[in-house]
Design a protein that fits this description.
- The complex is a heterodimer of chains A (871) and B (466).
- Chain A is built from 34 helices and eight strands.
- By secondary structure, chain A is mainly α.
- Among the domains of chain A are: 93 residues, no CATH class; 149 residues, no CATH class; 110 residues; 93 residues, no CATH class.
- In chain A, the strands form four sheets. In chain A, strands 1-2 form a two-stranded antiparallel sheet.
- In chain A, helix 11 packs antiparallel against helix 21 and helix 17 crosses helix 18.
- The longest helix of chain A has 41 residues.
- Chain B is α/β, with parallel strands linked by helices.
- Chain B has a single domain, classed as Alkaline Phosphatase, subunit A (3-Layer(aba) Sandwich).
- Chain B is built from twelve helices and 16 strands.
- In chain B, strands 6-5-7-1-8-11-4-12 form an eight-stranded mixed sheet, sandwiched between helices.
- In chain B, helix 10 runs parallel beside helix 11.
- The longest helix of chain B has 25 residues.
- The chains are: A mainly alpha (871), B alpha/beta (466).
- The interface between A and B is large, with 97 and 92 residues.
């Protein structure tokens, strides 16, 4: 496909608004050009200007010459032209510019470089095509391969995987044991270990469909949504903090989006709908019409608007006071838009589009202009040149009618409260005077009249004597503030009763005040908007404007369908058009990228090992036909994520053991050392959240409350960031507050991403500080103790076996038992030896020593490799 | 599968311990050394082995410390002319420095009088007077100074060096951050972040009070016998687990990490035991004086860590003390009173121990301060605002040619005009001193080979090299 030339000839976006030009503003023609004529055009003019920079043409200043843009709008200090003249590096020969001339040019640039328009159309045409790149062409449903031996085929996944193994004369490893499978499936789907009862039930279930039943049970658990939401929150770049630089202020509402994602996974919301809602929920459900016409917002609208929180996760440093900052759009607002586009493209399409911000992508067929066409899709909502600070971007869960009614009702309440308060004031005044009179009566008679007249005389007109009286009796006769209230209350029961009644009425009225829930949502703002191409990605060198569009080299049956309405209204429909383009059945990337992610979380590596990069520099798919089959199957199943889980988890490929005996292993490794072809399952380490959750779960302290505002994190006295005890410290990790600068210590240590933009694939680090935290943190010590107590109360007959079952989801072997039993006995003796000699035969000392020994055993089980890894 | 990716997978997953060398050793032990090309060590013979970064949060005032401007004093109180007027109208009249400057050492390099101790080392110090940065706000300018771009989330200089060079002591991290116990610096933990580099390259926070590393000891200490029995049990558990999973490198790496943790308990505790130092040394660093004790303690900790093979130590102060929007004169002097003696002591001590030649000292903040006064609280309390267009930093030791001022600002200290120095050039020079080529020290991330100097045409500043 050849791109069309963007040939618009217009003035650039931010600099010129001829109509509001103050008369004293310097202009190019009258103030700048004469200086250039006098000092510069000997070289920088004509047919072949030096450095390709022609200073007689204003357009040339932004487009620049060989060394880049000559000026950046409103940023003289960072403009090449000013740098050269300020340091007298230019003009090369001849007279340098005078200080006055330098000052004029500096001021002109800083005031917006009046007269610089990008009249030369930038050549945006590029002969790029995506035809060569497999991922830019729609997946075709491949034939299911035929195999020489198909006894291991449980579903088509196996046929595809086995076909490639067969070609290398390899095959699957044996099925893993039931206990291994149950532990693996529980962590994969729920992020939690199976309970001893679940293990018991499954191991003894001899129905032929015992396994698929178990998978079904797991997929139906609400814990599933909590586990899989976290995967999506990674790619969405979710954080509970706004990213206001180092303020790192908490975002009060984004958790509703987190809950939306959990619900979506639990309900198996079709993935296309999931994306439509997140990208354009407001437009999809016609929020604005509902807002304007309905009595209240339907739940479906609220849900879809909540989903647009996806477009609010990018760090947004804006504060209302930033409006006074020079070039705030370039410095603060554009970056949020850049990050948003990166999040959208890497999460949904597996593309590293950010390279195309500054230049056409070096490797992938993504022209720079397409970057800005995509940016234009979001421009109506974000508007860097007219930014709405992030704390003000929220939607009330209410319609216009409700808001109006609330305004009316609240005004009535205001009025009523005002009246009540007036009554209160009058009451108080009355009794204040009474208090004065009553107390005055108690003042000694010989001065009473003088005192009274002193108080009656206004301040300033009093004699010295009167002042002295006031000073002396003020506290008693005219108490103020709290003292007055106390005096009135204790002196006059009548006052107390009447004021209490009035205050009660005020509280009742205030209690009727109508407020609405709010949602951190994305929505279009009003008014027309332009999206300039930013030359070299720089908001200070805006180029020609572009219309909304998509990456033109991606081959889709349905084109991006958006029409400019005559007078652009709200919503603009841009995001909905994009979301529809993205979720069309044959989009080359959407389904592939998502099934690849699901696969990655079940096998430790994607079919495309670079889930964020399906481009030229990304990893090629290890199983291209399988990827396409899964992608088409995903769409055919109405984009059911759970269908893909079920297929994968019931396949022989997934059910393989990760352990292969030495002979086979040697042979396989010779052919396929990295296990790319899947001749065995891969061992995988638990990520931060399942690790922490499993520790809580094993200790028996886990709390299963779902949803709601995040569990707080604060810094403890020793410097770690933890959930303070008593504030939900036993809730699942998905609910723990995610601050960009204050990550929870344990989650952070085990590679929960620190969100800068988003995380498309987590790292797995192994460092000694992890070991120290597992061995010595208060959280682990507490968990080990609770685990020991649980073991003592549940596994009375065989505590050690019970501990092993809880921690490793398997039974305890014989040699192991000896090891553990010996440990407990010997460790008990060590603890006993540390207690005072005379107390050692007391039963409670003995019990405590034994319990401590058991806690040590439990602690080591929780720290062991077997706990942290899935077979 | 892409061989590069596979190598990187291994690297990111197998970084037991803290840095490249630990990783290299581990991989050697597991006989797959060939896959560990990452922390290849230096690209050429390094001048410096280690770095101590004295990060000065807030933006120290160059015209009051390192960049004398007689004209500014002469025109004190007058409005600036057009080419040096504040482009954001946040300052008013020019303000000369009240502090006298004087040439020091054989080189005659000028320092203001409020740095009596550091200036004794004038002949070791190279001041870069022509720095400029791209943002007028702290955080973005800090990101530029620490990570090379004005955007958040990139790896810091220390993380790049840890990634490039690893540590020389397997029992200690390659990159240590020494925050101020009084409180976090602006931008907190991002000051020692590894960004998208694997987390083993991020700075490990060492504390001067209590347990030097988080969770080095449990809150309730265990006896040695109890502790040892636990370790033996865990070792046995992991050994049995591994026996039925031969060749799983990740499992071996995790076992090694637990062993390292045990060794680190000893190494870190000993490294930070300042009671091993003489009274004279304590005095040299100002540990005998309340004003200098805190910063001096971190300086001394830094020397002890460097001595033990730590690659990069960053020292921080709480908040941003150099951010002198009001009372510039008083507050700049106060910062010097806290830091000048300890830093001077550090230089003296390193020199005495023969460590200065191999240790690069970096001093500086994210920008400088305006030559004109900011009048927040009236004339008497005049401050200086943030100033990105020209400011100073200094380097010493580790292959730096001392006794010189490199580059210059204009007569007002407003704008770097001579040998203008972008941050990327400074970074390229620092990497060069450590034997690394800034263009070759790459990390593949999100479809791109990333480097510290990113998009900049950076060059090593040869004039700064000894």
């Amino acid at each position: 496909m050849i791109l069309t030339l963007v040939s618009a000839v217009v003035s650039s976006g931010f600099a010129n608004a001829a109509e509001d030009k103050p008369s004293d503003k310097l202009t190019f023609a009258t103030d700048i050009l004469p200086i250039f004529r006098a000092k510069c055009i000997r070289c920088h003019a004509g047919v072949e200007p030096k450095g390709d920079l022609n200073l007689t043409q204003p357009s040339s200043l932004l487009n620049g010459g060989k060394s880049g843009a000559a000026i950046r709008i409103a940023a003289a200090e960072f403009s090449l032209l000013y740098e050269k003249i300020a340091a007298d590096k230019m003009p090369l020969d001849g007279q340098k510019l005078t200080a006055t001339e330098k000052g004029i040019i500096r001021t002109w640039i800083n005031d917006g470089a009046e007269g610089v328009s990008n009249v030369k159309p930038v050549d945006l045409a590029e002969d790029l095509t995506g035809a060569e790149l497999w991922s830019f062409n729609p997946p075709l449903r491949p034939e299911i391969p035929e195999l020489a031996r198909d006894d291991r085929v449980r579903n088509p996944i196996d046929a595809f995987v086995l076909k490639q193994l067969e070609e290398k004369e390899l095959s699957f490893a044996a099925d893993a044991s039931r206990t291994t499978l149950l532990r693996r499936a529980s962590f994969d789907l729920l992020g939690l270990p199976p309970t001893p009862a679940e293990i018991e039930q499954f191991v003894n279930d001899d129905r032929p469909d015992a396994y698929p039943r178990t998978i079904g049970r797991l997929l139906a658990s609400p814990r599933y949504g909590e586990r899989w939401a976290r995967h999506w929150l990674d790619v969405a770049g979710y954080a509970d903090s706004a990213g206001i630089l180092s303020e790192d202020r908490q975002l009060p509402l984004l958790w509703k989006y987190r809950d939306y994602v959990i619900r979506a996974f639990n309900n198996d919301k079709p993935y296309d709908r999931f994306l439509l809602e997140q990208l354009a929920g407001d437009e999809l459900t016609d929020y604005w019409t509902a807002y304007k016409t309905m009595d209240e917002l339907p739940a479906s609208v609220v849900e879809a608007v909540t989903a647009t929180g996806f477009l609010r996760t990018a760090a947004d440093p804006s504060r209302p006071d930033f409006s006074t900052i020079k070039n705030a759009h370039a410095q603060y607002y554009y970056p949020t838009l850049f990050d948003t586009l990166q999040i959208v493209c890497s999460s949904t399409m597996g593309l590293t589009i950010q390279c195309a911000r500054c230049h056409s992508h070096k490797f992938d067929p993504i022209p720079q202009v397409d970057y800005y066409r995509m940016q234009a899709i979001f421009m109506n909502a974000y508007r860097p040149d007219n930014w709405v600070p992030q704390m003000n971007r929220r939607v009330k869960v209410a319609t216009k009618k409700q808001e109006d009614a609330a305004t009316k009702r609240n005004a009535e309440i205001d009025e009523a409260v005002k009246n009540l308060q007036a009554e209160l004031a009058a009451l108080k005044k009355e009794f204040t005077e009474k208090l004065f009179a009553d107390r005055l009566a108690k003042v000694s008679e010989d001065v009473r009249a003088d005192v009274e007249s002193a108080f009656v005389t206004p301040d300033g007109k009093r004699t010295n004597e009167q002042n002295a009286f006031v000073e002396k009796f003020k506290k008693e006769l005219r108490p103020e503030g709290k003292e007055l209230d106390e005096a009135l209350g204790s002196t006059y029961q009548e006052y107390q009763e009447q004021s209490a009644e009035l205050n009660g009425k005020v509280a009742t009225e205030n209690g009727h005040r109508v407020t609405f829930d709010e949602i951190r949502a994305l929505y279009d703002l009003e008014g027309p908007v332009t999206t300039p191409v930013l030359l070299r990605g720089d908001p200070l060198t805006p180029g020609p404007p572009v219309r909304p569009g998509v990456i033109s080299t991606i081959a889709t049956p349905q084109l991006f369908d958006w029409k400019d309405s005559a007078k652009e209204t709200r919503p603009s429909g841009r995001r909905l058009a994009f979301a529809k383009w993205l979720t069309q059945a044959e989009h080359p990337l959407t389904a592939r990228v998502m099934v690849n992610r699901i696969w990655m979380h079940h096998f430790g590596r994607g079919i495309v090992a670079s889930p964020e990069d399906f481009g030229v520099t990304g990893a090629p798919p290890s199983h291209p036909a399988l990827l396409d089959w899964l992608a088409t199957e995903f769409v055919r199943s109405s984009w059911s994520v759970k269908h893909i889980h079920r297929l994968i988890l019931t396949s022989s490929a997934w059910r393989q053991s990760s352990q292969v005996d030495d002979d086979d292993r040697g042979k396989c490794e010779q052919v396929d050392p990295n296990n790319d072809l899947l001749w065995r399952q891969r061992i995988r380490r638990l990520e931060a959240e399942p690790l922490r959750d499993a520790i809580l779960f094993a200790s028996g302290t886990a709390e299963q409350t779902m949803y709601g505002p995040p569990v707080p994190v604060s810094r403890s006295s020793n410097g770690e960031a933890i959930v303070p005890p008593g504030h939900g410290e036993n809730r699942r990790s998905v609910y723990v507050l995610v601050m960009r600068l204050r990550p929870e210590t344990m989650l952070d240590l085990f590679d929960q991403p620190k969100i800068a933009v988003n995380c498309t694939q987590r790292g797995v680090s192994t460092v000694s500080t992890q070991a120290l935290t597992l061995l010595n943190s208060d959280i682990m010590v507490r968990a080990a103790n609770a685990f020991a107590d649980r073991v003592l109360s549940h596994g009375e007959d065989d505590p050690v076996a019970y501990a092993v079952r809880v921690a490793f989801a398997r039974s305890c072997g014989n040699t192991e038992r000896e090891l553990f039993d010996n440990f407990v006995v010997e460790q008990t003796n060590r603890y006993l030896a540390e207690s005072p000699e005379e107390s050692r035969d007391q039963p409670e000392v003995m019990t405590k020593a034994k319990r401590n020994a058991l806690a040590d055993l439990c602690h080591m089980l929780l720290s062991a490799n077997e706990f942290a890894y899935l077979d | 599968m892409n061989p590069l990716l596979s190598r990187r997978d291994l690297l990111s997953q197998l970084g037991a311990g803290f840095g490249g060398l630990a990783l290299g050793t581990l991989l050697n032990e597991t006989a797959i050394a060939n896959a560990s090309a990452q922390a290849s060590g230096p690209h050429f013979e390094p001048k410096a082995k280690a770095v101590i970064q004295l990060y000065m949060h807030g933006g120290p005032s160059h015209v009051d410390l390192l960049d004398p401007k007689p004209l500014l004093s002469r025109l004190d109180g007058t409005p600036p002319s057009g080419e040096v007027a504040d482009d954001e109208n946040r300052t008013k009249n020019l303000m000369g420095s009240p502090h006298r400057f004087r040439g020091r050492g054989e080189s005659g390099l000028e320092f203001s009088e409020i740095q009596p101790f550091v200036s004794q080392h004038a002949d070791e110090i190279a001041v870069v007077r022509s720095m400029f940065t791209e943002h007028r706000n702290h955080e973005q300018a800090i990101w530029m100074a620490q990570t090379g771009l004005t955007i958040a989330g990139r790896p810091t200089l220390g993380a790049w060096l840890a990634y490039g060079l690893g540590t020389e002591n397997r029992n200690l991290p390659a990159f240590v951050a020494l925050p101020d116990p009084k409180g976090q610096s602006v931008d907190g933990i991002r000051n020692w972040s590894s960004g998208w580099l694997p987390p083993q390259f991020q700075g490990t926070m060492f504390r001067e009070q209590g347990s030097p590393v988080l969770h080095l000891q449990p809150t309730e200490k265990r006896s040695a016998r109890v502790e040892n029995a636990r370790a033996v049990l865990l070792r046995e558990l992991n050994k049995r687990h591994l026996a039925s999973r031969p060749g799983e490198l990740e499992l071996e790496a995790r076992i090694e990490a637990f062993e390292l943790a045990g060794r680190m308990q000893l190494a870190a505790t000993s490294a930070l035991d300042l009671s091993q130092e003489t009274a004279a040394t304590h005095k040299l660093y100002g540990l005998d004086n309340d004003k200098t004790k805190s910063y001096g303690t971190r300086c001394l900790m830094a020397r002890r860590l460097i001595e033990r093979g730590v690659r990069f130590v960053s020292l921080f102060m709480a908040g941003q003390p150099w951010d002198t929007h009001s009372e510039n004169n008083k507050r700049t002097k106060d910062c010097c009173e806290q830091t000048d003696l300890p830093v001077g002591g550090l230089l003296t001590d390193l020199k005495q121990r023969g460590l200065l030649d191999s240790t690069l000292i970096l001093w500086g903040g994210e920008f400088g301060r305006t030559p004109a006064a900011e009048l927040r609280n009236g004339n008497a309390a005049a401050g200086r605002d943030h100033h990105p267009y020209g400011f100073s930093v200094w380097l010493a030791g580790g292959g730096v040619k001392g006794g010189q001022a490199y580059g210059a600002t204009d007569d007002f200290g407003y704008r770097a005009v001579e040998n203008r120095t972008q941050t990327a050039n400074l970074h390229a020079t620092i990497l060069h001193l450590l034997g690394l080529d800034h263009e070759e020290l790459n990390y593949y991330h999100n479809g791109r080979d990333e480097r510290l100097t990113d998009i900049y045409q950076a060059s090593v500043i040869n004039e700064l090299l000894a």
